């Protein structure tokens, strides 16, 4: 930027010098006028060259800044992509871990439930068998008592007839 200001200032000075040289032509001899014009042209040419060089330098710097900005933007974008992928992978890993934990817990609960149900079923089966055996025994005993009572009644009924008939 300073180079541009300097080039403009030199151009302004050269232009003013040139303007002054043309206005004072009548008072200045021709040789001096030629020398002043040559100096002004030389200064103007130098100023133009300097402005060109400055413009090229500024353009080169702008290109470098643009390239650096693009590189930095690409770098930041790539870093963001890497972070996003890492976050996604971490989230997926946590979700899988949570799912596996739920499956494991569910399996444990199912196994425990199956074990309890099997235990209760076995216990009920054993108790049912015991009750059946006890009921069967009691029924057999009751049948024996009923048979004994019937036999005794028959004996006593017939024995009463036998006693009376005799």
Descriptive notes:
By secondary structure, the chain is mainly alpha-helical. Helices cover 95% and strands 0% of the residues. The protein has helices spanning 2-23, 30-165. The mean pLDDT is 82.
Distance N to C terminus: 160 Å
Fraction in beta strands: under 5%
Fraction of residues in helices?
Answer: over 70%
Q: Main beta sheet: strand number and arrangement?
A: none
Q: Runs with pLDDT <50, length 5+? A: none
Mean pLDDT: 82
Shape: rod-shaped
Helix/strand/pairing category: mainly alpha
Radius of gyration: 61 Å
Oligomer: single chain
Number of contiguous helices = 2
Quickly describe the structure.
With 166 residues, this protein is an all-alpha fold. It has helices spanning 2-23, 30-165.
Key phrases:
rod-shaped; 95% helix; mainly alpha
Topology diagram in text:
Elements: H1 2-23, H2 30-165
């Amino acid at each position: 930027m300073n180079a541009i200001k300097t080039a403009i200032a030199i151009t302004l000075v050269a232009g003013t010098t040139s303007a002054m040289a043309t206005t004072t032509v009548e008072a200045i001899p021709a040789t001096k006028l030629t020398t002043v014009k040559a100096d002004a042209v030389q200064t103007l040419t130098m100023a133009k060259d300097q402005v060109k060089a400055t413009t090229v330098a500024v353009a080169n710097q702008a290109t470098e800044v643009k390239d650096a900005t693009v590189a930095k933007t690409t770098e930041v974008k790539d870093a963001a992509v890497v972070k996003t992928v890492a976050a996604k992978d971490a989230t997926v890993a946590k979700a899988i871990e949570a799912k596996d934990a739920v499956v494991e817990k569910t399996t444990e609960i199912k196994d425990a439930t199956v074990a309890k149900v099997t235990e209760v079923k076995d216990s009920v089966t054993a108790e049912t068998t015991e009750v059946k055996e006890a009921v069967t025994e009691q029924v057999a005993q009751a049948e024996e008592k009923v048979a004994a009572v019937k036999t005794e009644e028959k004996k006593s009924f017939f024995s009463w007839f036998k006693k009376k008939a005799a």
